Amino acid sequence: MTTAALIGTYILAAVLLGDALLSIKPPAFISRCLSGVNLPRDWWWALIGVKLLATAGLITGALRNDPSITATVSIGVLAYFVFAIISHIRARFMGSEFWLNCLGMTLLSGVVTALNVGAVL
After folding, report:
1. Is the pTM here over 0.85, yes or no?
2. Which residues contact 20 (CB under 8 A, 6 or more apart)?
3. Which of 25, 30, 98, 120 has the most CB atoms around its CB within 10 Å?
4. What is the domain extent for residue 96?
5. CA dist 15 to 6, 12, 90, 105, Å?
């Protein structure tokens, strides 16, 4: 793996871990976001699981220096945030949570995905 792909992978893993931990008792901006896209509160826990599994996959791939693992997981993370964008648009919930959180995470995961896929090719 390239140094840039490795650093990007660790950054994305750290951000996802932080997001998952924050989501255990979500602050107002996370609650507004999930409510804004009409995700039932009974399902909020599933997002924590998805983010923790993605974190574990990214760290595993980075520690093994295996770009095929990190590329696969980062593609999944990117897909997660693309669907988050779609959810925001469909719900017409386009406030600051969308512009800062959703698009910011999509951009970060897109860059890391490009670096990791580039490391495989």
Report:
1. yes
2. 47, 48, 51, 52, 55
3. 98
4. 3-120
5. 14, 5, 26, 9
Q: Which two tokens stand for residue 98?
A: 């969308």
Residue whose C-alpha is closest to residue 88's, from 77, 104, 111 = 104
Q: Are 116 and 4 in contact (CB under 8 A)?
A: no
Instruction: For residue 43, count other CB atoms closer than 10 A to its CB.
Output: 9
- Between CA 121 and CA 116 the distance in angstroms is 9
What's the CA gap between 83 and 3, in Å, rounded?
A: 29
Model confidence over 76-113: pLDDT tens digits?
999 999 999 999 999 999 988 888 889 999 999 999 99
pLDDT at 121 over 90: no
Tokens of 86: 């779609």
Mean pLDDT of the chain: 95
Record the tokens describing residue 109, joined without a space. 């995961």
Query: What Å distances lie between residue 2 and 5, 9, 43, 68, 110, CA to CA?
Result: 5, 11, 37, 13, 16
CATH number of the domain at 62, please: 1.20.140
